[in-house]
Amino acid sequence: MHHIGRITEGKMKIINKLISLSLILLCVACANSKENIKTSSNIGWMHGNCLAIKNADLVSGIEFSVFNLNEKVTKTTASILNITQSSDDCFALLDDRKVVNMDAGYSFYLVKSQNDIESAIGVLSAEDHGGLEFNECTTSEGTVFSVLRNNQKIWEGYYYLGYDIDATCE
Amino acid sequence: MPQKKSGKDWVSWANTSAKNSNKIDDLETTFKTNVKAFQKALKDAGATVTVSATKRSNKRAYLFHWSWKISLGKCKPSDATKMAGVDIQWDHGDDVKSKAGANEMVKGFGLAVPPKSTNAPGLKSNHISGKAIDMSIKWTGSIKVKKKDGTEVQVTYMQNVNSNTVLHAIGESYGVKKLKTDAPHWSYNGR
Known about the structure:
Distance between the termini of chain A: 66 Å
Order of helices and strands of chain B: EHHEHEHEEEHEE
Shape of chain B: elongated
Mean pLDDT of chain A: 86
Largest sheet of chain A: 6 strands, antiparallel, barrel
Largest sheet of chain B: 4 strands, antiparallel
Helix content of chain B: 25-40%
Strand order of the largest sheet of chain A: 1-2-5-4-3-6
Number of strands of chain B: 8
Helix content of chain A: 25-40%
Oligomer: heterodimer
Distance between the termini of chain B: 39 Å
Low-confidence stretches of chain A: none
Shape of chain A: elongated
Largest interface: A-B, 37 and 35 residues
Radius of gyration of chain B: 20 Å
Strand content of chain A: 35-45%
Low-confidence stretches of chain B: none
Number of strands of chain A: 9
Structural class of chain B: alpha+beta
Radius of gyration of chain A: 22 Å
């Protein structure tokens, strides 16, 4: 009987350890997925004065940082005017591009900026942006925008252009 | 007939007379047959297929290409080739005006520009030759799709279609090959 009790106690210890390990792994996965959710709803790409972002809840007046992808990345600010589905406001909604870009889950916002915006990445979170790297390259018919922290990609966005170009992305 | 100078009127012209197609029937014959068979297999399995682009207009591509190059000073206006059916005058006789006219077109067409966009829009491509298709393929959960040889393959939906190698293999059995860098793009050779 004592032998059976020791086996049961041993098994319980193993089970407890497995449960603890599972909980730890679950917490790490949750933290990572929260990070993914946070960046996907707080970072978007821009072509002209239009922000494409996977967040349908932005209201007029919200200010955000614009990282302009010039020869050297420069930081300016802009603010949300209104959500839009019009190509008058937004190159990404031109006829040859609209279906694919909207189908990807983006919402499009007309923005107000004192500076001209050509190609940029918009970041809504107020956290310190130090240490972030902003990149852009082209694929066969689109542009890939990405943000890295400590050489790890934390966000990527694809902008379908609807015409053919030579790729520069590796 | 006198040529018409480059400028925003050519954007309007292209949007009526040089539009891209999203019709499968406009594809090159062999590729069209293959696409139709692949699409049928997907739809029979319960997927929804939405086509956004098939054959792109070579005239539209011509206007994109040269307006981009001229407006950005990548070539002289007189370097632009001619194209039958597009009576555009790129060279206004004044470099500033020539660039301005081309720039109106770059803006009107919404072309991406340097410093990061370093290559002009292409004059040739699988889309222009009718051997590529841009389409979204969607379903919920897992479905069983028949390859060309009739074997059924279970394929699970992935948000990132570029990573769905099971789906790619099914398409490839029909001669419709996935380009892994651009989500909607499939072609006869995967490029």
